[in-house]
């Protein structure tokens, strides 16, 4: 067996894969969204809190209207990456750039697995993607021992989900 050091790329990929598999199990669901917790802040002056909003003056012509920007709801794995990071290394933080990279990494892996499992279902003339197709896709997409770890983590997550 190959002796791998702690700072090796394989260990890094193994950690990233475990993170992504765990995050896929913790993926956001529309019904489970919780509002962010508010930290108790120092009291601000009462006058600043009760300041009425200025009303918009409507011009008679109406030609000066600006288009409102529609905020796009883009779901990310950032909070889940942070939760897993704190489970693995409670004393380490992560920069926003690194967080963006991790989010892209998880999206890429997820898309590759989805494409491969879709292809497998089509080859077998099945209309449904089951956990079996996903497990086979993981074995095909990820190399060697990384696939073994991913399959075991995925099986553990599915077992935990079905038992609850």
UniProtKB/TrEMBL annotation:
InterPro entries, per the entry: H2A/H2B/H3 (IPR007125), Histone-fold (IPR009072), Histone_H2B (IPR000558), HISTONE_H2B_site (IPR055333)
Pfam families, A to Z: Histone
Chief subcellular location: nucleus
One GO CC term, this protein: nucleosome
Compartments (UniProt record): Chromosome; Nucleus
SMART domains in the cross-refs: H2B (SM00427)
Subunit structure: The nucleosome is a histone octamer containing two molecules each of H2A, H2B, H3 and H4 assembled in one H3-H4 heterotetramer and two H2A-H2B heterodimers. The octamer wraps approximately 147 bp of DNA.
Domain Core Histone H2A/H2B/H3: 64-140
Keyword Hydrolase found: no
Chain intervals for the UniProt region annotation (Disordered): 29-69
PROSITE patterns: HISTONE_H2B
Basic and acidic residues compositional bias, start-end: 30-64
Family of the protein in this entry: Belongs to the histone H2B family.
Alphabetized UniProt keyword annotations: Acetylation, Chromosome, DNA-binding, Isopeptide bond, Nucleosome core, Nucleus, Ubl conjugation
GO molecular function list: DNA binding; protein heterodimerization activity; structural constituent of chromatin
Function, as annotated: Core component of nucleosome. Nucleosomes wrap and compact DNA into chromatin, limiting DNA accessibility to the cellular machineries which require DNA as a template. Histones thereby play a central role in transcription regulation, DNA repair, DNA replication and chromosomal stability. DNA accessibility is regulated via a complex set of post-translational modifications of histones, also called histone code, and nucleosome remodeling.
Protein name from the UniProt record: Histone H2B
């Amino acid at each position: 067996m190959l002796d791998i050091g702690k700072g090796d790329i394989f260990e890094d990929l193994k950690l990233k894969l475990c993170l992504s598999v765990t995050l896929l199990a913790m993926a956001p669901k529309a019904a489970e969204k919780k509002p962010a917790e508010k930290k108790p802040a120092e009291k601000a002056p009462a006058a600043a809190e009760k300041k009425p909003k200025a009303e918009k003056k409507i011009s008679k012509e109406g030609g000066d209207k600006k288009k409102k920007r529609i905020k796009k709801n883009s779901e990310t794995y950032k909070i889940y990456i942070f939760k897993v990071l704190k489970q693995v290394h409670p004393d380490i933080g992560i920069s926003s750039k690194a967080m963006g990279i991790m989010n892209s990494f998880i999206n890429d892996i997820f898309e590759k697995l989805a494409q491969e499992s879709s292809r497998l279902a089509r080859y077998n003339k099945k209309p449904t993607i089951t956990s079996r197709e996903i497990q086979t896709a993981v074995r095909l997409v990820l190399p060697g021992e990384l696939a073994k770890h991913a399959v075991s983590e995925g099986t553990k997550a599915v077992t935990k989900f079905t038992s609850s």
